[in-house]
Known about the structure:
The chain has 92 residues and is an alpha/beta fold. Helices cover 39% and strands 14% of the residues.
Amino acid sequence: MLHHLERHLTRIGHVVKTADSMRAGRRLCENGWPDVVITELVMPDYDGFELLLAFRSRPSPPVVAMAGPGALEPEILLAQARYLGAAGVLCK
């Protein structure tokens, strides 16, 4: 999904930087915030909800949250993400 989004967003003219873990994402942000962050809510090394909570406490870019089938219905996860401040949501 990461590479599919990267290809699509690049093809329509966006500059895209990708990270396959939260650690890599943090390194990308060391030199400044991106215009927008797209994150999966369920990740092996970090929870996308933690990201939303961390961004609520300081000025930060808008976050688009994604979720797909899993332990909970994606709609439930995405509703929670909206409640926590996600600017947008995508159901995979």
